[in-house]
Design goal:
Helix content: 40-55%
CATH architecture of the largest domain: 3-Layer(aba) Sandwich
Structural class: alpha/beta
CATH superfamily of the largest domain: Type I PLP-dependent aspartate aminotransferase-like (Major domain)
Number of strands: 15
CATH topology of the largest domain: Aspartate Aminotransferase, domain 2
Shape: globular
Low-confidence stretches: 1-10
Mean pLDDT: 92
Number of helices: 21
Radius of gyration: 24 Å
CATH class of the largest domain: Alpha Beta
């Protein structure tokens, strides 16, 4: 009996076994990912012990038990102090912090002569560093795609406050990929002699669409600095910074390997750090500050951007997590999640009500398109009416299926996918009662756009996913017919 079948809560039976046999016939490359089943049994046994189906890896990866044990053993065997000192406990911790920087650069194949690592609280913290420090000025342009996390969208407020112009590039429909002609035209219109920043995600956290990394070099050739949001991409895909070399890369480590949370990084080119201007200084960022002299001098390199004391006790957990991914095999994870996502898309698209109406509408590229292990959809009844995504989440929870619903902090991707129009949204936001209250909630939006959906259902695969997880979700979806 297969590892999947043996661990199946409640013995799924012949239907499961037949489905798995068909799956392996259609995706024979999945067989090479067998060591991940062993890893799941060893490091993620709690999933099967509890009967949980975890399908929110884009929200956060699951940590392996061995990661926690290794980190705890390290903390119990050493005396670690605040690295902002030269005493023995601090010096030992300082070495681990620098080991962490080197480890991140090595993992992403980034030259330490070209790049440095700035530790932050998460990808959002890394993006805020860029936004507050980038030399926007009147005449500058902040160019970004519709498909971006709100932490990337939020940089526009820093840019706008300094007189820069904000420009969005739309997505192609229905694939939700970057509109290539529109982006080419925008890149070609860079103002001469101005600092201009182009930001986009390597993988959409809304649809799972993977945007071409070749845009990095094309934008740079046109004179743009490039900010690559890699948070949704790097957990299951290889990012090689010796081949693709943006000025800035933002990511969160908990999305890669689950533990520790509360730590991310900005990988930045050393050559661009000198052009960034911090709007303030803090403990740890300066070499000297004076009250009476009313001046300060920023430290060199990453320390100038690490406000206060870094999360030093968790930084060794980053090295442990990267080792965990190496041992699991990133390429192996990539193959597995790709097989599961493509199979699930095919299964969902085959589900129809008795009158022939489709149960599910999937957003983004099809099964054969450029996509990661994320599948985003909405469910419809036999009359073609959208089923509230919040109800789907509640029904899935009853089957111990963890998924995510909403727009996933990606309003542009959601608006494009759901067909919400600019004039429609402006009308909602400009109503007198909204202006009077100076507030607007998702419930207000639902009332404003009436029958249209204001969100979607997202499932995503990762390091500990197996066929049974995908099969159980498909069986859940099947239960919603009629």
């Amino acid at each position: 009996m297969s590892a999947d079948a043996a661990s199946a809560p409640g013995c799924p039976g012949e239907g499961f076994l037949a489905a798995r046999e068909d799956f392996l016939r259609r995706y024979p490359e999945y067989c090479a990912t067998g060591p991940l089943d062993e890893l799941r049994a060893r490091d993620y046994a709690r999933l099967d012990a509890l009967g949980d189906v975890y399908l929110d890896y884009t929200g956060a990866a699951l940590y392996g038990s061995s990661q926690v044990r290794r980190h705890l053993a390290l903390l119990e065997s050493r005396v670690f102090g605040n690295p902002h000192s030269r005493n023995p406990a601090s010096a030992q911790m300082s070495e681990w912090v620098e080991r962490g920087r080197r480890g991140v650069l090595e993992y992403f194949r980034a030259s330490p002569e070209e790049y440095t690592v700035i530790f932050t609280s998460n990808a959002t913290g890394a993006l805020k560093l860029v936004g507050e420090s980038y030399p926007f000025s009147p005449g500058s342009v902040y160019l970004l795609t519709f498909d971006n996390h709100n932490s990337v969208n939020g940089i526009r407020e820093f840019a706008r406050a300094r007189g820069a112009r904000i420009r969005y590039v739309p997505l192609s429909i229905p694939g939700l990929l970057i509109d290539a002609p529109a982006l080419e035209a925008a890149l070609a219109e860079k103002p001469e002699g101005k600092d201009c920043l182009f930001a986009y995600p390597a993988q959409s956290n809304f649809s799972g669409a993977q945007h071409d990394l070749a845009w990095v070099e094309r934008a740079q050739a046109a004179g743009w600095d490039v900010l690559l949001d890699a948070a949704a991409f790097v957990p299951t895909n290889r990012l090689d910074l010796s081949a693709v070399r943006p000025e800035f890369v933002a990511l969160s480590f908990y999305k890669m390997f689950g533990y520790p949370t509360g730590i991310g990084c900005l990988i930045a080119k050393r050559s661009v750090l000198g052009r960034l201007h911090r709007p303030w200084f803090a403990g740890g960022t300066i070499t000297v500050a004076s009250v009476q002299g009313d001046t300060y001098f920023l430290a060199d390199g990453p320390e100038a951007f690490e406000d206060g004391t870094v999360d030093f006790l968790n930084i060794p957990g980053v090295e442990i997590g990267l080792d965990h991914l190496r041992q699991a095999g990133l390429d192996r994870i990539h193959v597995r999640v790709g097989c599961l996502a493509r199979w699930l898309i095919g299964g969902l698209e085959a589900l129809h009500h008795a009158n022939g109406a489709p149960l599910v509408r999937i957003y983004g590229p099809g099964a054969g398109g450029p996509r990661g292990g994320t599948v985003t959809m909405n469910f419809y009844d036999a009359r073609g009416r959208v089923i509230d995504h919040r109800l789907i989440e509640d029904l899935a929870a009853r089957r111990r299926i963890s998924l995510r619903t909403g727009c996933f902090c990606n309003p542009g991707g959601g608006e494009a996918a759901l067909g919400l129009r600019a004039e429609q949204l402006r009308s909602c936001f400009s109503r007198p009662e909204v202006r009077a209250a100076s507030r607007f909630t998702l419930d207000d939006l639902r009332l404003c756009i009436d029958a249209q959906s204001t969100g979607a259902v997202r499932v995503s695969f990762g390091i500990a996913s197996n066929f049974e997880d995908a099969w159980r979700f498909l069986e859940f979806a099947r239960s919603l017919l009629e």
